[in-house]
Write the structure tokens for this entry.
Amino acid sequence: MDSLFSTAFTAWGAPTTWLELIAVVVALAMVACNIRQIHWGWPLAIISSVMYFAIFWHSKLYGEATLQVFFAVVALWGWWQWLRGVRPDGSALKVSTLNPSGTIKTIAASAVFTWATALFLIKYTDSDVPWLDAFPTALSVVGQFLLGRKFLENWLVWLVVNLASVGLFTYKGLWLTVGLYAVFAVLSVWGWVQWKRTLHH
């Protein structure tokens, strides 16, 4: 395990570990599968989550680290949804949009999860960025649910998550991951465009 935390290269004065380098490659493959609605993105999500749990915990980003455990578990649910999931009316699971009620619930859940996560980090951890850690952590929970149920708006949530994460990881000096989340932000827009096209088919 120690060898995975050894330095692969140094960027802007900060070391990038082999584990982070491998995790970036796996995560990019995962998002590519999500955009194309290929179900193999979910097992890649599990692998990526395990790697990033170790990376974030090592960097004292406990909210982000705990989130990876959630991602790994929910990825099994998401995989099942994409393989066997159906809509409430029994029709096949396909890309759809949130109704007004769903949008309000999504915003409310994001706010409540952010508040609860931040309070937990403040009280039970030595995190030096509890609110900045809590915000993308909480929104990622919401985004993962929307992705699993193939709601188009998941890409808007991920765009916000990715932009917030760029700031968080810049502060922590995880430069390769900063680059990854910047690419994720662009891919979130691309995912929105690609999924929106399927609404008309």
About this structure: The chain has seven helices and two strands. Residues 2-7+15-85+100-198 form one domain. The longest helix spans residues 100-124. The mean pLDDT is 88.
